[in-house]
Specification:
The protein is α/β, with parallel strands linked by helices. It has one domain (about 10-105): Response regulator (Rossmann fold), CATH 3.40.50. The protein contains four helices and three strands, in the order αβαβαβα. It has helices at about 10-15, 35-45, 60-70, 80-105, and strands spanning about 25-30, 50-55, 75. Strands 1-2-3 form a three-stranded parallel sheet, with helices on both faces. Helix 3 (about 60-70) links the parallel strand 2 and strand 3.
Length: about 110
């Protein structure tokens, strides 16, 4: 698909990778270690324009609401197909470009 991807097996590993800026971060809320929302918080505090998509198998609106409240931009419930994930990533990339463009026009 033309995407460069970095992987982490747990929350701490994901947070460590945030020394670099990513266009989009996709995080499973059920990663081993601290809550996956820690990745959301760390991403948004370091890279506010980075779009965060959370994925979860818990069909609980409270889980999604919590993720959104700490900065997630989108969420997907498992199971999902690659076309759905691709669509969310494409939309997230467009949103990030919009944010960066707006910031540029503010300066």
């Amino acid at each position: 698909e033309g995407f460069s991807v970095a992987e982490a097996g747990d929350v701490k590993g994901a947070v460590r990778q945030l020394h670099a800026e990513f266009d989009v971060v996709v995080v499973d809320l059920r990663l081993p270690g601290p809550p996956g929302t820690e990745v959301v918080k760390a991403t948004k505090s370091r890279w506010p324009a980075t779009q965060v998509i959370v994925i979860t198998g818990l069909r609980d609106s409270g889980v999604a609401a919590e993720a959104l409240s700490v900065g997630a931009d989108r969420y997907l419930y498992k199971p999902f197909g690659m076309p759905e994930l691709r669509s969310h990533i494409t939309s997230s990339l467009a949103a990030r470009e919009r944010i960066l463009r707006e910031r540029g026009s503010d300066q």
